[in-house]
Amino acid sequence: MAALVHAVATPVRTDLHPFICESHFFDSWQLVLPATEQQPAMFYLLKMLGNSPAWVDSLMTLRNKAVQLVGLKDLSVMSAISLEKAPSDYQIGDRVGIFTLISQTPSEVIVGDNDKHLEVRISFLKEMKNEQMVLTITTAVKNHNWLGRCYMWFVKPFHRVIAPATLKRLILTS
Questions:
Q1: pLDDT by 10-residue block (mean), the chain, 174 residues
Q2: pTM metric for this prediction
Q3: Residue 143 and residue 149 in contact, taking contact as beta carbons nearer than 8 Å
Q4: By CB distance 3.0 to 4.6 Å, which of 18, 21, 117, 124 could disulfide with 147?
């Protein structure tokens, strides 16, 4: 039986490619969606953020306390999102939880965050692949300075656990 969530090559169709070309880190994780799923990509972003595991929020709280010591911003926690707003109500530039909405189509949403040490972009791409509907989350990070490189050295191992764990909850919380 195939893994529920697995690492994949960056999708060819993502609009994130220009950013990835300048990135210092990127990865992609994929989940097969139920065959009947008809929701836009924004639905999955909102659902993933709103259903983040408590341990991820605890790690974010710890992260926020630690980075304030070096002057970085407190991002809050992943699950701090209003689920009352419909996916179609979001406009470019709106905050979507801890991220800012950069682009949105029914099949792909790109969100991100900028700080003095790095830029983050995350794509949620929903597409047909091998006759299955799949959702691929691609994260890309561009470091601006030594602080960004240091930050990513600490964050990367956690990211590689958090990204698939939060993606997996999309199916487990249905």
A1: 78 93 95 82 90 83 80 72 80 91 96 92 92 92 93 90 86 61
A2: 0.89
A3: yes
A4: 117
